């Protein structure tokens, strides 16, 4: 049975945090993704995840070094780089321990399903023109058996991951239910225990930042209905900090 996926919304608002990181000379990585086999098909944390670093040309992929220090022992060999050539409909794929390999779209779907011991469940969707090639490919081709979670920023020299959010209402931030679950799985099943993971809600009216340092403090089962948004997970926010204090926080 073919199932429809909700329309993708991606990249519609510029990042505040990226400007802060860039202006303060902080090294960061973007365009990284966690592929997860949905729990109805595989709940084994040893096999259901792949971590993906996206590149935008073949030369960068060939020369890529992956931030494997961020991951726990079972995930170190499950970190890969990809370059999607949408014109030729091929995907170039590299592990941290091998050469670049080339796959057709169909071959790549089968590869991911095999590595994650997952099931392909047909669906149809349209990726956003604002998203990256890998995000578009995934949404339009990988079906309903898999989830794709983007990680906004990785600070490889500091062992820090940052997820940026902007939805704040009445002193609460809000997360989508699926993203809440995925971020918790990322924390518990994928990352090295020493890695810090910050959820940062940005108040665009004054550039103040609300930093959640413990993703496990959020109860994903508690949701609220918001008009024009739908069901979301509320996050209690503490006192905001200015961007200068945030730079001090991530600088250790």
Please count the helical segments: 6
User: Helix- and strand-based class?
Assistant: alpha+beta
Rounded to an integer in angstroms, the radius of gyration calculated over CA atoms is 18 Å
Give the overall silhouette.
Answer: globular
Mean pLDDT: 91
Please report the total strand number as a whole number: 16
Q: How would you sum up this structure, described in words?
A:
The protein has helices spanning 16-23, 58-62, 105-115, 133-141, 177-190, 243-251, and strands at residues 3-4, 32-37, 49-55, 79-85, 90-95, 101-104, 123-124, 146-151, 153-155, 160-165, 168-169, 172-175, 196-203, 208-212, 224-226, 230-236. It is α+β, with helices and mostly antiparallel strands and 252 residues long. It starts with a strand and ends with a helix.
What's the topology here?
Blueprint: E1 3-4, H1 16-23, E2 32-37, E3 49-55, H2 58-62, E4 79-85, E5 90-95, E6 101-104, H3 105-115, E7 123-124, H4 133-141, E8 146-151, E9 153-155, E10 160-165, E11 168-169, E12 172-175, H5 177-190, E13 196-203, E14 208-212, E15 224-226, E16 230-236, H6 243-251
Parallel strand pairs: 1-7, 3-4, 10-13
Antiparallel strand pairs: 2-3, 2-8, 4-5, 5-6, 9-10, 11-12, 12-16, 13-14, 15-16
Quick overview:
The chain is of the alpha+beta class. The chain is built from six helices and 16 strands. A hairpin with a 3-residue loop joins strand 15 and strand 16.
